[in-house]
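Last lecture ended with a question: if I hand you only a sequence, what can you say about the shape of the protein? Today we answer it with a concrete record. The protein is FRG domain-containing protein. Below, first the input exactly as provided, then the predicted structure, then a couple of comments.
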Amino acid sequence: MYNGGDWQLFYLYKELIQFFTSDSFQDSCNYFRGQSHEYPLLPGILRKNVQNDYRQRFEYLYKRVANEFPEKISYFPLDTDNMGDREEQLALLQHYGLKTSLLDITKNPYIALLFMLSGLSHINQKCSPSLFFFKIDDEKHREKHLFTEVKKDRINERIIAQKGAFLNFDKIDSIKSYDIKKIKTYKIVLEYDEHFHKKSLREDIKRIEELLSMTQTNYTELGEYKQELEKKLSNSDYEILECLRHICEELIKKLKEYHYFKEDLFPDFERKIQYLAQHYEATTRKTLGLDN
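The predicted structure:
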């Protein structure tokens, strides 16, 4: 159906990654982030789909978790003196699924690509998958921007597997605006040309109508093909979603050839079990739907 275009797309990503990480590129990038949607670079707690009530109650929720599970989480208030300790605890909270002020980034561009694709397999609305490239000076941007590397330990194996770091938005108030050192950022957006898609369908329909009007002969197959194109045009949004899902599946297959697997992003026991349960639950539902 797609005539191998997905493989070409993978190698295009590969070439772009090589270009942006090359020493010959003036702004050679060393950190990356993949998003299945083109939403702003904001941590989970600051996104539009998060209620203000959650933001206002976050410190209370953080304290509550720390009180109930002191062997796993320690509470550190939001101030400059506690920033390093607090970052480690927020990383653990985010690791367990709580939305925090940390934005994940990774040293591995293919892990970022995998994250970008992992959110596309179940999309139900149009989106623009985005891959971000950052040029970060670990020392300079730790002091004069939001960059932070969380100390690796036995508990946060997931961060190790993802070669992860963060942009910590809690640090915004502690950095003077005149002292900020900007991080060079580049973004690649995967977009389906909806206008071109619809235009091509309309042109094909018009050509068929012209052929049918030139003769009185009843071309059944041509008429059926015209109806098929009209159906595609009326369902173009669905067609685009199906195309994105297909691209996602094929690119993930290609990443597997390079030994990048979605399940390896969740190496710790609890998240590994959660991933496997969700994966097979989705597979079971799909199978039941087909049997009906």
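Comments.
1. The chain has a mean pLDDT of 82.
2. Strands lie at 31-35, 102-106, 130-135, 147-148, 164-168, 184-189.
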